[in-house]
Structures are given as structure tokens and as C-alpha cells.
Amino acid sequence: MIVHRIASEPPPNPPPQAPPGIGELAEQVIAWLKWGVLAAGMIGILVCAGMIIIGRRRRGGLAQEGLIGSVWVLGGLALASVAAVLVGAFAGVGAR
User: Whole-model pTM?
Assistant: First the structure.
């Protein structure tokens, strides 16, 4: 009877909570990382655009590398833009 009752109750599932005093620091670090990702993305796109422009004439390999690099940069920016949504989905934040 006790085993049946324990097995039928779901385990506790409290929501995530930052330790006291850490929440503000974590938000600040995340804000800095977001800024860094955006700055790196802008630099990456500009570098890849330069490679495409320079490689346009007689340097096809450089232009190709610039084009492939820009796809990777855009993919990284897309992943960074949905990072909070992905982590929230896997962590079950908001799910009931």
C-alpha cells in the first residue's frame, strides 16, 4: 500500500531559482555575452563580405571561403538568437 502510494505520486519539480545574489550577476554576464556575440557576428559578416569582394577576380577560392564563412556566421547568429528559447524548452520553463 505504501509502495503504491509512493509510486503513484510524481516527484517534486520546483522551478529554477538562482541562489541569492547570483541572479543579477548572471544576467549581467549573459548581457555581456550577447553583446560579444553580436559584435563577433558583425565582424564575421564584414570579413566574409571582404573576402567575397576581394576574391571576385582571379581568386575564386577566397570568394568561396567567404561565402561559406558567411553561412556559418549567419548560422551562429541564428543559434544565438534562439538560445533562450531552446534552453527554456529543454529546461521545461513555463511547462506545466
Answer: 0.69
Quick one: DSSP state of residue 42?
A: H
Q: Is the dihedral of CA 21, 24, 30, 32 positive or negative?
A: negative
Burial status of residue 36 (CB atoms within 10 A of its CB: 0-12, 13-18, 19 or more): exposed
Hunting for cell 571576385 — which residue is that? Answer: 56
Q: pLDDT tens across 75-86, in order?
A: 999 999 998 888
pLDDT tens digit sequence for 21-50: 888 898 899 999 999 999 999 999 999 999
- In whole angstroms, what is the distance from residue 62 CA to residue 54 CA? 8
